[in-house]
């Protein structure tokens, strides 16, 4: 019997002039035919997320990447709050190097609770992927995005680099959420200006 969480997705890769046809940062899954067991303890999310402050661009500092995100360079995620309350999302990265082909994904986020910390990301109707804001700092400069399956995670910041102390703090947080830290990978970023929401 097939587990209800085991769904097959097909990812269509396209160039920077064309769009992906499936879940951006959350479900970049190519022919996903198996699923990990879900830990009994759910992820604790941020107590309250100010959506307006959370909007704008974020650099991906580290991740347990989906299949399509492997060998990503300069990955960034940007959010825009739509009039209907949904969230237009753009995820971009260069594949294989900073001069590699630019990949772009444009899913739509849907807020699922009053804290604004639980989202669902839709890349292709009717499928939605879990997206949990496990942490955002008071200044909205650092965040951790997680999933209850502990399969993927993203550490993001408004700047392309974090101090070693801040980075290790966020890595420790990911470990405390129940992730296997041996799977966590740094995402190469070029030095540059801070991302402004």
Report the count of strand segments: 10
CATH topology of one domain: Lipocalin
Q: What is the name of the CATH class of one domain? A: Mainly Beta
Radius of gyration: 16 Å
Give the ordered list of helices and strands: HEEEEEEEEEHE
Arrangement of strands in the largest sheet: 1-2-3-5-6-7-8-9
* Assigned CATH superfamily of one domain: Calycin beta-barrel core domain
The amount of helix comes to: under 10%
Low-confidence stretches: 1-37
Computed structural class:
mainly beta
Average pLDDT taken over every residue: 83
Q: What fraction of residues sit in β-strands?
A: 25-35%
Count the DSSP helices: 2
Major beta sheet summary: 8 strands, antiparallel, barrel
Named CATH architecture of one domain? Beta Barrel
Task: Give the helices and strands, then pairings.
Elements: H1 51-54, E1 56-64, E2 72-81, E3 87-95, E4 102-105, E5 108-111, E6 118-124, E7 127-136, E8 142-146, E9 153-157, H2 164-176, E10 185-186
């Amino acid at each position: 019997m097939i587990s209800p969480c085991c769904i097959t997705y097909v990812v269509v890769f396209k160039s920077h002039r064309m769009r992906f046809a499936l879940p951006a940062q959350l479900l970049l899954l190519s022919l996903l035919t198996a699923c990990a067991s879900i830990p009994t303890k759910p992820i604790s999310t941020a107590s309250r997320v100010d959506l307006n402050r959370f909007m704008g661009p974020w650099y991906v500092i580290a991740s347990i990447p989906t299949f399509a995100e492997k060998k990503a360079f300069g990955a960034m995620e940007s959010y825009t709050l739509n009039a209907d309350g949904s969230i237009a999302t753009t995820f971009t990265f260069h594949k294989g190097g900073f001069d590699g082909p630019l990949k772009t994904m444009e899913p739509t986020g849907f807020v699922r609770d009053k804290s604004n910390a639980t989202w669902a990301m839709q890349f292709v109707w009717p499928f939605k992927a879990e997206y949990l804001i496990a942490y955002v700092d008071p200044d909205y400069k650092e965040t951790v995005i997680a999933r209850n399956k502990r399969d993927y995670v993203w550490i993001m910041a408004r700047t392309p680099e974090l101090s070693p102390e801040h980075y290790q703090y966020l890595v420790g947080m990911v470990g405390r959420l129940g992730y296997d830290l041996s799977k966590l990978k740094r995402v190469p970023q070029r030095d540059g200006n801070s991302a402004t929401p």
